[in-house]
Specification:
Elements (H helix, E strand, L loop, with lengths): L1 E9 L4 H14 L3 E8 L7 E9 L11 E6 L2 H7 L3 E10 L13 E5 L1 H8 L5 H13 L4 H11 L7 H16 L2
Parallel strand pairs: 1-4, 4-5, 5-6
Antiparallel strand pairs: 1-3, 2-3
């Protein structure tokens, strides 16, 4: 099994953090993983994305022309990466910040109000964890203890945020499970 992912948004949305957490989740589940981040010098507010590849066999390629999943946290990300979703792949779109626009008929769209869900939780900064939960809901259930370990690995200096992020992750996961 080999799956490829792009997570994209603006600087300050936690794109790189959530990509690192996803990569950690895969590693904790004994997959081979590659992780590559891309961001401009302006960081906060500028375009940011990361690519994650996971496989049950060794990986030799970091970047792929087409990917299985794109998580677009804003309109710019949707517009930029919609063309990279492979046929029958999936794009998760933050409908709080991007218009619902199906420009291709050979992929699956998940429009979810990620930012609105995070705001209801009480912290807009949890949008990225809601998005990860939505993605996890599509991929299948990850062991929550391993998800918690992945958050702890990435948020080493912010241990107090782990529980809040897990709560946001579970809201996203349940959003998909409940249809």
């Amino acid at each position: 099994m080999n799956k490829n992912f792009i997570i994209s948004g603006s600087g300050g949305q936690g794109v790189i953090s959530i990509g690192g957490i996803l990569a950690n989740i895969f590693m904790l589940n004994d997959f081979f993983v590659s992780f590559c981040s891309c961001y401009g010098a302006e960081m906060r507010g500028g375009a940011v994305n990361c690519e994650i590849n996971m496989s049950d066999e060794e990986l030799f390629c970091i970047e792929n022309e087409e990917v299985d999943y794109v998580v677009a946290l804003n309109q710019t990300s949707f517009d930029k990466f919609i063309s990279r979703v492979r046929e029958n792949g999936t794009i998760i779109v933050n409908s709080s910040l991007a218009k619902i626009n199906k420009t291709r008929d050979n992929i699956k769209y998940i429009f979810a109000p990620l930012t609105d869900i995070a705001v209801k939780l009480g912290n807009i900064k949890m949008t990225n964890s809601v998005a990860l939960g939505v993605l996890a809901g599509l991929l299948g259930n990850f062991n929550v203890e391993k998800v918690k370990m992945a958050y702890e690995n990435v948020l080493k200096n912010k241990k107090e945020l782990v529980k809040k992020n897990i709560d946001a992750y579970l809201l996203g996961y349940n959003y998909i499970q409940e249809g």
